[in-house]
Design a protein that fits this description.
single chain, 536 residues, alpha/beta, 7-stranded mixed sheet, 15 helices, 18 strands
Length: 536
């Protein structure tokens, strides 16, 4: 299957590149950013980071080699790189509240932990406060990336300053522009959502959409707040114009009027833009996702409508694997999604990407410079306490890795699947060649893909206040599945029952017959069948 053309360009400057760095979690950031550091962090950041540091451990702190710190700052200066906190548009107190929610949930799920360990349950996710990003001239990025590896465990076994450093790809909408509708797909029938749908006689389930931007479409006025605050959206058009994409997603998700109906027309929608307009326009996916998590409750659904592209530009091994990849292919995004699903108990739905690639090949990325080496990752599920203290044991030659690493290997159980990957529900796109009515997988595939949904000729709202366009690809398919899950959760609420993200994902995987193969026959999620299984 040929790769879909990506007609959107990056919203970031082509003259700049982004390198993500993560400091070792055993190092106090107050020592890294001391009075000699050429970069200032506000006091409220250090206060929030200090509290979070204890909730994540605490570790027996080690002090980085002073000479390494000097070399690090001098290196950034020599390359003209600007360092900023990865979550630059998110108040530190908001991130801390997310961490505290996760810790409280861990305590509720495992009340005996404190009695056994004499401390509160330790969080297993990556410490969000240790992630930063570097902006540097694009022509210098590869060389700087290579130099930064000298501060990571792969090169330095004693007191490494950084946990990892990698050059980022480009975040793009997970679809191409719409086309006139010719033979609209009856996705409601294909997903068995026709007939009686749950009536919203209780509070509607929330869905939080992370996309680039939106147009103020007449079809959604009164239902969706397109204003700037407090929902972190942007209605300012990025240079390449993917602001229409948000409207296409809303159409197949919440439209209530003829000639088509969305899969979750009653959902309560909030928008979170991964694009920051203005003089400093840039992609801010980390902030958008973090703020979506902050606004969510465990009953809500997080819908990611972006993909990661241009990896081949940064890593030659991807030169023969064109197309887009899931957002979670980026390590920082992966860690945040893992935090959301495993420690906040949230349902995240994500496009598998519009390439024609076996995602299982991404396992080769584990040992690259952009991933955590699983051979030196500490076991945080069974921490060892230092004698007579409540600190995690630590020796000068051990390497602390909190970041999780991507795993696409086939799993033997629903729990194993949930524990060893990001926990997000990954959706692929099905097509019907020559409109034969026979559906098959048409985009990325592999054991990590959880399900397929129709990915072509989805009637949706266009960008001119009309309703005549055909949407598709993994963006459209993922929006359909997100609405499908909203309906399941709404039905569960009406029955005063609770279905967890792990239950929903496991049931969908069983029904759709994973692993998803290249050009393999498509089996779609069946709402009525799943509701009978999950909500008897």
């Amino acid at each position: 299957m040929p790769t879909s053309p990506n007609l959107f360009v990056s919203t970031d400057s082509e003259n700049e590149a982004t390198i993500v760095v993560k400091f070792q979690e055993a190092i106090s950031l107050a020592l890294v950013f001391d009075t000699d550091a050429p970069y200032y962090l506000p006091e409220n950041f250090f206060k929030a980071a200090s509290v979070a540091w204890h909730l994540y451990g605490p570790f027996s702190e080690y002090v980085p080699v002073t000479d390494d710190l000097s070399k690090f700052w001098n290196l950034l200066s020599a390359y003209g790189a600007k360092l900023t906190f990865l979550y630059a548009d998110t108040p530190p107190i908001m991130l801390l509240e997310l961490v505290q929610r996760a810790q409280q949930r861990a305590a509720a799920l495992d009340p005996g932990y404190g009695k056994t360990h004499n401390i509160s349950p330790l969080l297993r996710s990556a410490n969000l406060f240790t992630y930063f990003q570097l902006q540097c001239p694009a022509e210098k990025a590869e060389a700087l990336d290579n130099e930064l590896q000298n501060f990571t465990p792969g090169y330095k076994s004693k007191y490494p300053l950084l946990e990892l450093a990698y050059q980022r790809g480009t975040f793009v909408p997970a679809s191409v522009p719409t086309t006139p509708a010719q033979l609209p797909t009856d996705y409601m029938a294909l997903l068995n959502l026709t007939g009686t749908l749950p009536v919203a006689n209780q509070a509607p389930i929330g869905i939080h959409i992370v996309d680039f931007a939106w147009l103020d479409h007449t079809a959604f006025r009164g239902r969706v707040n397109f204003a700037q605050q407090p929902q972190f959206p942007s209605v300012v058009a990025p240079p390449s114009g993917p602001h229409q994409h948000g409207c296409w997603v809303l159409g197949v998700l919440i439209s209530q009027d003829a000639p088509f109906r969305g899969t979750a027309p009653q959902a309560a929608v909030k928008l979170f833009s991964a694009y920051a307009g203005g003089a400093n326009s840039r992609t801010r996916i980390d902030d958008a996702l973090a703020q979506a998590l902050y606004a969510s409750t465990p009953s809500d659904v997080i819908l990611l409508e972006l993909a990661l592209g241009n990896l081949s530009r940064h890593d030659g091994r991807f030169s023969n694997l064109p197309g887009d990849y899931p957002v979670e292919t980026d390590q920082a995004c992966y860690d945040l999604i893992w935090f959301a699903t495993h420690e906040l108990g949230l349902t995240v739905v994500e496009p598998a990407g519009n390439g024609s690639t076996d995602l299982d090949l991404l396992d080769a990325f584990l040992l690259s410079k952009g991933r955590v080496d699983e051979r030196v990752q500490a076991d945080f599920d069974k921490p060892t306490l230092s004698p007579g203290t409540s600190s995690l044991s630590f020796t000068e030659r051990s390497v602390i890795h909190r970041a999780r690493y991507l795993s696409n290997k086939p799993q033997t159980s629903a729990r194993a699947s949930a524990d060893t990957d990001s926990g997000a529900i990954l959706v692929g796109a099905a097509v019907q060649p020559n409109h034969t009515g026979v559906w098959q997988n048409g985009r990325n595939y592999g054991s990590r893909v959880d399900c397929l949904a129709p990915g072509e000729q989805l009637l949706t709202t266009d960008d001119g206040n009309g309703q005549t366009q055909a949407f598709g690809e993994t963006s459209g398919a993922t929006a359909l599945v997100a609405g499908f899950i909203v309906q399941l959760k709404q039905l569960a609420r009406q029955k005063n029952q609770l279905i967890t993200p792990v239950q929903v994902r496991a049931a969908i995987r069983r029904q759709c017959g994973v692993p998803i193969t290249q050009n393999g026959a498509a089996v779609f999620p069946d709402f009525k069948a799943l509701s009978r299984v999950l909500l008897p």
